[in-house]
Amino acid sequence: MTEGLSGLDTFPKLLMHHARVRGELPAIREKDLGIWQTWTWRQFADEVRALACGLAAEGFKRGDHLAIVGDNRPRLYAAMCASQALGGVPVPMYQDAVAAEMAFPIQNAGITHAVAEDQEQVDKLFEILPKCPSLKHIYYDDPRGMRYYSQPELTDYAKLLEIGRDSYRRDPAFLETEIAKGAGADPAAMFFTSGTTGVPKGVVLTHHALIDRALAAAEMEGLNDQDVVLAYLPPAWIGQNIFSYAQPFVTGYCICCPESAETVMTDMREIGPTYYFAPPRVLEALLTQVSIRIQDLWWGGRKAYAFFTELANRVGGRILDGKPVGLADRLLYTLGDVFLYGPLRNVLGMSRVRVAYTAGEAIGPDLFRFYRSIGINLKQLYGSTETSVFVCIQPNGQVKADTVGPAVKGVELKFTPARELLIRSPGLFKEYYKNPQATSEAKDAEGWFHTGDAGYFDPDGHLKIIDRVKDVGSLADGTLFAPKYLENKLKFFPYIKEAVTFGDRRDKVCAFINIDMEAVGNWAEKRNLPYSGYTDLSLRDEVYELIRECIEKVNADLAEEPEIANSQIHRFLMLHKELDADDGELTRTRKVRRGFIAERYQGLIDALYDGRQTVHVEAQVKYEDGRTGTITADLKIRDAKTFAPAAAKRAA
Amino acid sequence: MSEVALHPQARAHRIGEVVLSVDNVSLAFGGVRALTEVSFDVREHEVRAIIGPNGAGKSSMLNVINGVYHPQQGTIRLQGVEFHDMDPHEAARRGIARTFQSLALFKGMSVLDNIMTGRNLKMRSNLLLQALRLGPALAEEIVHREAVERIIDFLEIQAHRKTQVGRLPYGLQKRVDLGRALAMEPSVLLLDEPMAGMNMEEKQDMCRFILDVNDQFGTTIVLIEHDMGVVMDISDRVVVLDYGRKIGDGTPDEVRANQAVIDAYLGVSH
Q1: ipTM above threshold 0.90
Q2: A148 vs B3: CB contact, 8 Å cut-off?
Q3: Among 3.40.190.10, 3.30.300.30, 3.30.70.1660, 2.60.120.10, what is the CATH number of A472-651?
Q4: A436-461: pLDDT as tens digits
Q5: CATH code of the region A379-464
Q6: Looking at the 3D structure of chain B, how many domains does it have?
Q7: Is B159's CB within 8 Å of A148's CB?
Q8: Chain B contact present for A37, CB below 8 A
Q9: What DSSP assignment string belongs to B76-101?
Q10: Residues of B in contact with A267 (CB under 8 A)
């Protein structure tokens, strides 16, 4: 791959390079009317040239921002590159954002030109037009439904292309000069972070940052121009942009745009990508689909599935990592590969996947291991918009379910005393657009980016992210206490729906548990365990026993990690009611409101820590019809076994 | 839908001459009078609704236009040509397509094949060549397949292209039914309760498709519906039937203000 990319310091230069070197190889594919249409690198470069000249003729110039609103479409990617060719900065926007959310970026960046995918996006732009007087030109890709639009701001993409072709014919040197003027230190793209707190911030990334990171990861994974990627996540998200724009531009691989959001599964099977990214929720949804169909199999089929998945769970990951496996298991795995794993990969469209990543949120270890066990090289990575994604990647053969791997080449990591992760990398963002205060808060004078994430290195030097810094505390003995990390570990068990852990400035960790009514209900039915309702079920000794086993498994896991071995859960109780957003215990997005719960259930927490075996509760509850009532119950408090920390064990 | 709201004049401009006129039509089944001296016309590129309470004769009216029933009295002119005793096959040849209230799709066939059946009248090569996919038949199939793909794209059912129709949810089956009618490239499209049994979102989708068909292909649309709300939003003119008689005719606003219509819908004390 890296055939002399020196001097090619911007994306337009890279594009022209590929058009020369691999002009007839596919650059981008789109399924249209049921047929995959291919654009070669040469055709793609031609389109970008014409488009850039068209934009220039329409007054788009160096330093301007081009809004790009839509799904993964070849023409929108062409627009991205065309604006860069003129020294402009593309600003991709989420296609599912409501109109009001699009106003801020346009105002903030003073955007004058926008390329929209279709009528839906054009309508949204017109809705906010009165608030965004800077916006003067809107181009649309799909003319469907646009016949009666007569606004002066509107131009058909095809028309823009025509203008550009004309102008390019007259003066081909203009564009070459413009492209040559570009430098690696120029801003290449701006991504607006969602801004859950306060207004969104425009993250400015330079060509150098994006190209450097894209190249580092591509070299590490050995990506080349034979690779294929399905572009199915929003292009306004930095990850999709890296996988479907930056990396193909450095390696020359081909990206494929699905026909529509609903056809992604089918399209993926047809294309057979070799390089794949999916957030945990997508992987989980895929697995659920598989599991449901397996349930429909006849008895023998289900048994065989159970047998082979158990086998895969035991040895599949080791085989993938090239670790030794007994001959019998290896032969059985080969058999399973013929009859189950292979066909399963095929159904998932992952037969050809060499490298797959997941990131974005904590992934359940079972889910993660499932994909690896059937032979899909799924790995975790760590990064954010501000870091051009690639900070840490798990190298082949060193994949763990609960770390994100060591730093990628070129990245320096360190921790503050408060355990906040700091990053220095060539991929760091230039600034938050027009927001020097936020920039200086996030990036210090020495160039360290403050992530706000807390974590530590495991004994193998892999980074482990545990929580946001602001949520992390410490136990009375000064060791780390990361409540969300513990709660996530608990919630990976299907029986546990919610968990709240306490331990900040205390001598040990204790927990409240909410069972998952459906999972535990099924479990109880299979055991002929009668129960009358939620409270009754969760207070049964058998259920306490079930949950205790889960907690002890977590404790055993924690004992293996010296940094947080002291966070093992000593005592727990089952809450008499489900935590509920209506009662203010959860946020609307189902995040635990720790402070509120601590206050409301002070009595229960005291009981956890003063050694009592039961505690009486009387609680006000709001029913769904608005009435309030009182629940009284005697909650039992149980101890869970804790384990000696692994480090101590080794020393002993 | 929004461009209609944005540019009503632009749309109104397209409405042309009368393409279909129903004159003094009466239809009776034995002693039951389904239609009594009904007259109205349909203009080119228009969305024309026929509404009325249950049993008002709406479907009978559609079946008369479609050639399924032959009226005992009155005439029907299509593009100025009067016709009698036309059978549905003839109606199809003349460019009238329809969808059905109770879906009449081939449930065991894929969406693609179902829509392809709508191209039947347009196929020229003989059965043997088609079966063997030889020479002209293959070239023809490619043309038809492209037309079908455009419809699939238009109705946004790409994800279900190869799915058996019987396995699709009802709202999507309705869309396939519309797709099959569109495959004929009709000049007049008759829709029999296109929104019946749908939830609100499906209804909105269907409205959008009906308007898009009208807009993009210029198809004249006659639709029957008993849900007044949706019809009023998308129709240019509305005919109201009650007990087989026409009791109102005009723009949605005129019809809404018509006392006879209000009485028929809300009931009136005698």
Answers
A1: no
A2: yes
A3: 3.30.300.30
A4: 999 999 999 999 999 999 998 988 89
A5: 2.30.38.10
A6: 1
A7: no
A8: no
A9: EEETTEEESS--HHHHHHTTEEE--S
A10: none
